[in-house]
Structures are given as C-alpha cells and as structure tokens.
Amino acid sequence: MDRTNPATGESLEPIADDSEDDVDAALDAATETFAEWRDVPIRKRQRLLENAADVLRENEDEYAELMTREMGKTLASARSEVRKCAWVCDYYAENAADFLDAERRPGPAHAETSVSYEPIGPVLAVMPWNFPFWQVFRFAAPHLTAGNVGLLKHASNVPGCAQAIQEVFERAGYPEGVFQSLVVHSDRAERVIEDDRVVAVTLTGSARAGRSVAKTAGENLKKSVLELGGSDPFVVLDDADLDAAAKTGAQARTINAGQSCIAAKRFVVHTDVYDEWLDTFVAEMDDLTVGDPTDDDTDLGPQAREDLLETLHEQIRDTVDEGATLELGGEPLDREGFYYPPTVLADVPRDSVAACEEVFGPAAAVFEVESEEEAIELANDTHLGLGASVWTEDLERGERVAHRLDAGMTFVNELVKSDPRVPFGGVKDSGYGRELAEHGIEEFVNKKTVWVQETDASDEDVDVTIE
C-alpha cells in the first residue's frame, strides 16, 4: 500500500499487501484460535487486556508519531488518542466479566432459567483512517475480552497503524491468531465478509460503505454493526451561554482538522442571539492555528489525503454558489501538504450542499432560526442521525429538546464525544448497533437461553410448546 505524509505531500515507504494465501492462512488461524480462546477464563482475558493498556502507555510516543505521519493529526491529539485506547482497555478489563455474567430469568418453580453471553467466533472489523487507533480499540477491547477473535481490515492510508495495533496485542501476550491485521484494499473486503470462517462484521465509515457491507452481510446471514457518517447539529438556543457555545463550537467543528463523524457540522442558532454568537464563533475559529502537526502550537493539521481536500473545497465552493455567505476561510492554504483553514459559512440555504451532505473538514455551516420549534425541525432535517448538541442555561429545557432530536447521542452544553462508559452509535443513515459500555460488548455474543429441569418435572403453567 502506498502511503503519503499529508503534512508534506511526500511519499512514505509503501507496505506490501497481504496475498490471497496470507488472507486464507489468517482466516484458518482465526478459526483454530477461536476454538481455544473462547474457553480461556474471562478473568485471564481481562488480565491480558490490562497488559495491552500497559503496552499502549509505554509506547505512546511511538504510536502517536505513526498516526501523525500516516494521516496528519497533531501529535497532541495522537497522544490523547493512545491514552484513550488505554482507557477503553482498562474499562473492559474492569467490567467485562460483570457485563457478561449469566443472568437469572424468571421461570417455573421446577426449572432454573438463565441467559448466558457466549462468544460467536471470528469478527471482521472494517475501520477508517481518521482515528486509526481508537476506532480499532473501541472494537477490540470488548469483543476480544468476550471471547471472540478479531480480524482488522484497516483503511488503505494507515497500514502502518494496522500492523502496530496487531503488535500491541502480541506484546501484551495474547495468543497468536486472537487479533490479526489483514493488509488488503477495500475491493477484497467483500470476499472476507462472505467467507464462512467469518461470523460477523462491524464497519465504521461512510453510508455508502455501510450499505455495501450490510448488503453482503445480510445476503450471508451475518450479524453486522455499522457506525456511519454524521451531520451533527449544534443547537444554540436564545438563553445559551454564548461565549461557551462559541468556544466549544469551534472545538467541536475542528477536532482532528474537522475529520470526525461526530464533529458539529450544522450550527442552528436562535435569531435573538445569532449575530452575537456568530461574531464570537468566527473569532474563535479565526484564532486557531493551522500548521505542522508535530508542532505543539498547532491546533489543526492537514487533511488526511489530497482527494479529501479537493472534495471539501468543492463542497464549500458549491455552497457559496448556492447562496451562502463566506465569513472565514474558504480556500486551501498555499503550502506543501493538504491544508485547509477553519471556514465559516453563514446564511446557508437549507437545500445547499453543506446542509444536505456530510462535510468532512473544518468548515461550519450556520443557520438562523426563529424559534425552538424551528431549531428542532431543522436539526432533524437530515438523513443522518449520529449525535447532536444543545446549548441552553435551562437544563430542563435542554433535556426536553435533547429527547426530540433524531440522534443516537444527544449532549446538553457539551460537544458530542465517545466515552467507554456510555453507548455510542446512530440512527437513520448513521447506522445501527452500539459500541462501548455494556451495550457494545453484547453486540457480538450469543445471548443463549439455558433451561434446566428434572426429567420427571411437570409444568402446570400455560402451555408454552406452541410458538
């Protein structure tokens, strides 16, 4: 796989693809390893996950520098990403056994009835480049600890990260075959999903990729979890703390140079505070420093690929042509690498590109609304439904509005974020299923009913033999 440093445009040493024989051997290894791994006591699996957290912390600089080199995020955010991966390992190392403990269920007096949570087999994870370690560990920490084995098909521009993640588990002492990275391009992923040795698949990516994966998984009757794109609304009501909403709004739009599914993308602002908030928000965006991602003073690094930069600029240009006002930015920076400045579009038409498409970069679309009801209607006017943020000094009002927003996650007076302690996922074209917390670990287990009774027991209850 060819690699390019997005901060300089220079080519990095390519990494060889896995051959068909390599992939076949990996699938065989996954199947063979699962037969033994599933019987390893969960407490031992948790101790290995603790080891993985230690490996991550001990090698934080190495992994952070690799992420920055391959996809351009700032070193500061890359280090934070490694620490967050260690956190999710700690979380499941502490809680997985409790989450998966067999659950007693009500039944007749003469029988013991329960639900056990048992692993299902090799699971393929198709993961994106924007958070190249976190997205993978968000999958691997719970599902390896549940007794499954993992196969990773990572994005083609971060193969070094894929290999490094496999090495984390090897260094932690996991048996060979519990977690394997397949260095293959997307056109080969479909055949892996179809393979009988793979029992389920999870994907984080675009809605287009999600439809393709869901179709293949469905045709082969395999469980799938999809975390897809987002066009998250950031709703500023008339009683919001405007300084806090502007400062956090700029952060929410530009984390990872704006390349995040849960970034705030559509800013929906009440007319009573629109002008004041917009001025403050533009100033906050303008104050951000774009530059070398290895420099500690840099807030935004480059876009991850040149084609992504070009797509972003085309979306902004089209939205301006459709009637939006360009308040800030709007042109690629004239320097080596793939840099785009913080950009603000105001008076955005509701049928324009920035209103209807996911904009994956540091460009904010701002909309003015006359009422709370109109804010809710506009926030929900999208085919996507990943996260949403509401800003108000009235917490009861904020919670009420949050419940009316069509999203998998709603935050009041906070940006949308992922946290191991709460479930993560979307609705509508943002996907289905959940990651993280106990809800996430239950996605790839067999919730098995176990009914145990004496052979001479009789059931005087209602006849339950008829479906």
From TrEMBL:
The lineage of its organism: Archaea, Methanobacteriati, Methanobacteriota, Stenosarchaea group, Halobacteria. The keyword NADP applies. Keywords: NADP, Oxidoreductase. Pfam families: Aldedh. Belongs to the aldehyde dehydrogenase family. It comes from Halorussus caseinilyticus. Residues 2-450 form the Aldehyde dehydrogenase domain. Residues 1-21 are annotated as: Disordered. The keyword Cell membrane does not apply. GO terms for molecular function: oxidoreductase activity. This is NAD-dependent succinate-semialdehyde dehydrogenase. It comes from the Archaea.
